[in-house]
Amino acid sequence: MKRLFSLTIFVMVLSLFSIQTIYADQSTNMFDFEKIEGETVRDSNELQKESSFLLDGLNIQQKEGIINGSGTIIQNGTKSELSIKGELYPVLGKGYYEGNLVLGDMDPTENYNVIQFKIEHKSEDSVSKNAESANATIVLEDKVTGEWIRFNQEIGKQTFEKFYQDSTLLIENKEVKELEVAEKVTNLLNIHNKAEHGEKIGNNIKVEDSGIDDTNGNRTVDEPISTQMDDISVNFRELDRMFQDLKDPYTDSVNLSDYNLPESLFKGSGWKKSANLNVNPGWGYYAAGSDQGSFTLTQITAFQFEGRFGEWVSGTNDYTNIWKIKHGMVLEYDHYTKDIKAFFYNLGINQRNFHLAQNLADGAGEVSVYTRQDLQGQGLTERSGSPLIKYVAGLIPYGDNVNNVWDTLSKMSPKNKDLGTAEEFVGKDFESQKEVHHGKVYRVVSGSLRDYDIRNEEAYVNLKGDIHSGDGSISLTWTYRTDLGTNLY
After folding, report:
1. DSSP character for 13?
2. DSSP assignment of 42-93, as one string?
3. Phi, psi torsion values for 332, nearest 5 degrees
4. Burial class of residue 218, CB neighbours in 10 A (0-12, 13-18, 19+)
5. Residue 347: which residues within 8 A CB-CB, separation 6 or more?
6. pLDDT at 177
7. Beta-carbon-side half-sphere exposure of residue 370 (alpha carbons within 13 Å)
8. Rg of the Cα atoms in the chain
9. Within 13 Å of residue 408, how many CA atoms lie on the same side as its CB?
10. Cα separation of 101 and 330, whole Å?
11. Sign of CA dihedral 108, 113, 119, 120
12. pLDDT at 12 (0 to 100)
């Protein structure tokens, strides 16, 4: 009898525990926007009072990272149903918001675009990682008026943790790589991307730079060729110091007031650049920014570019161009506090179709010729299972002038090879090349990363051209061009 009584008590306790567990699990899988008034914001996110909006009982539920929400929205006294659906993506990595932010990729509704859905674990006293609550934000865009309406709702820490946990489960189930998650989240962070009435800036842009080096140590740099980019000069030592501080393992945030850097680099939308290639090695950066109201998001890459001759031995020399990524990040700049936070590390501007070229001084009387070209690289991102590079050499009639390297190369036949495989030219000096190639000589070498991108920090590519020169005096033009891509737009 005692055994039966004890067994009965055990079953009752177990059942009660199971019910509580199920209830707790259900309660952290949902929350409500209950009679929450919306703030109407302009495209610049400056608050204004025009229409009135009220979320009246919008219930947000999720399961394994899939969002389903339904409720009522009241606009200027007119009530209508609101249903939202989408997927959750977590902020991973080692940045400031790691483990404390979830973004939603939401479908548009009949009358509204859901231009932002995010849940952030933070507190007003900035002790975000110790906060016991979190904040959920939905920003809607009225498809007719173009108004943006922001709704905020405080939720429990356990609810946030469950949403975050299930967002990681979603990407595991979909087999999404961490880099792809970071790229996705960066795009979702920009409130303009899902808006019909937001700012529209192209997500890629072409850049080109060139200059002249000679064996006497002289260097001149041409005006950079690019379009729709703001040239914002910086002190590159200060920029490098800021990046190094952000990489300190004990911090993921710095303050602009501690650096001699222009605020315009971190504030304001659009493409930005600057380079000082007159020194060797030279420094430069490419960046894309997007204002989000009280803060600006910036994706930025800082690079070094170098050109150097080897030693002249028995009539031969060589010249090498080296391009190297030093820093790449996604940053958040607070307009009021001037804090700069690292959102993602090692996620700078992507460079695609990177093409390096060299052009020896040409025309009658010039006897320097290329005898070999070699394109090397490390830390590059492969875009195919069997990636290749592309060589294009400029074999031109002796005495002709190369007025434009790229025009000359466009008339030549490319050769696809494995990265690190050199191309030898027939004819080891000026006279033998003229004889073998019927009066033509190799004045231009170039290598293109056909199936590779450059993005990772410390990734580099270098083009080496072996040169035969009669007296060792060499002058040449170097140039590169590439397509820049950002995940912000």
Report:
1. H
2. -TT--EE-SS-EEEEEEEEEEETTEEEEEEEEEETTEEEEEEEEEEEEE--S
3. -120, 125
4. exposed
5. 179, 182, 183, 186, 299, 328, 329, 330, 455, 487
6. 95
7. 30
8. 29
9. 22
10. 15
11. positive
12. 42
* β strands within 335-474, DSSP E: 339-345, 350-360, 369-378, 381-382, 389-391, 394-397, 415-417, 423-424, 440-448, 452-454, 460-468
Structure tokens at 431: 């006279």
* Residue in the structure block whose two tokens are 């690292």: 342
What's 95's DSSP letter? Answer: S
- Output the six-digit token pair for 456: 């990772």
- Are β-strands 53-63 and 112-120 bridged in parallel, bridged antiparallel, or unpaired? unpaired
Reading the block at residue 53, the tokens are 């909006």
pLDDT along the chain (489 residues), means of 10: 41 39 54 91 53 90 95 92 96 95 97 96 56 89 92 94 96 96 97 90 92 94 80 97 95 95 97 94 96 96 97 93 98 98 97 97 87 97 92 94 94 95 96 96 96 97 95 93 96
- Going from the C-alpha of 79 to that of each of 55, 57, 201, the distances in angstroms are 10, 12, 35
**Angstrom distance (rounded) from CA 262 to CA 233:** 8
**Identity (one letter) of the amino acid at 291?**
D
Q: What angle do CA 403, 405, 408 make, to 5 degrees?
A: 85
For 33, 193, 266, 274, 329, the CA distances from 90, given in Å and listed in that order, are 21, 18, 24, 33, 18
Identify which of 415, 414, 392 has the alpha carbon closest to the alpha carbon of residue 405.
392
CA angle 220, 223, 225 (to 5 degrees): 130
Q: For residue 449, what are its two tokens?
A: 């990363």
Tokens of 400: 């002709």
Identify whether the C-beta of residue 456 lies closer than 8 Å to the C-beta of residue 381: yes
